[in-house]
Structures are given as structure tokens and as C-alpha cells.
Amino acid sequence: MTLDDAIAAVEATLDSAHLRVDRRRAREDAASYLLLVLDISGGRRDEGPVANGPRLVDKHSGEVIRLTVPDALARAERMALVRS
């Protein structure tokens, strides 16, 4: 799985046009990609909670898992930035 594939997998799970995957902060290890979903609405939404935050994408299955920020920070320390 490539970074583009991982981004597409995350984008397929997003339910708002106000969410974007941040390619520049992507990290990876042998098994997965760690991606950050950003809210680009500028706080001008009245639609309720926003589903931004970190996502882990399994390189073999393509499964996307939403992580808590503490879990993502712990994983990020052990992962390398993806070179594009």
C-alpha cells in the first residue's frame, strides 16, 4: 500500500467536506501509516461534533482505525515521517 492508497482509504471514511488528510505530517512504519485528519472549516460549523484527529491505516488490509491523541503521539514517536 502506498501513501496515496492510505489517504484514499481515510478519505473514504470521512463524512464531511470540511475534513482533509494532512499529507505533510504522515508517518509510517513497516505495518501502518499514521495520518492526521484536519477540520478546515475554521470553526464556522453548526453541524455538531467534528470527526477530525489521527487515523491509523494498516498497510496490508487497508483498515482505518481512529486513534486517541495520546495513542497517536505514542505511536508517532516510533514512526518515521513519510518522504514524498
Our count of domains comes out at 1
Strand order of the largest sheet: 4-3-2-1-5
What is the percentage of strand-forming residues?
25-35%
Main beta-sheet annotation: 5 strands, antiparallel
User: Rg, please?
Assistant: 13 Å
Low-confidence stretches: none
Structural class: alpha+beta
**What is the CA–CA distance across the termini?**
14 Å
Shape: globular
Question: What is the ordering of alpha helices and beta strands?
Answer: HEEEEHE
Query: What's the overall average pLDDT, rounded?
Result: 92
User: How many separate helices?
Assistant: 2
User: Tally of extended strands?
Assistant: 5
Helix content: 10-25%
Features:
84 residues, alpha+beta, five-stranded antiparallel β-sheet, 20% helix, globular
Folded structure, characterized:
This protein has one domain (3-41, 51-81). The chain contains two helices and five strands; from the N terminus they run αββββαβ. It has helices at 3-11, 69-76, and strands spanning 19-28, 32-39, 53-58, 64-66, 80-81. It has a five-stranded antiparallel β-sheet, with helices on both faces. It is globular, with a radius of gyration of 13 Å.
SSE topology sketch:
Blueprint: H1 3-11, E1 19-28, E2 32-39, E3 53-58, E4 64-66, H2 69-76, E5 80-81
Antiparallel strand pairs: 1-2, 1-5, 2-3, 3-4
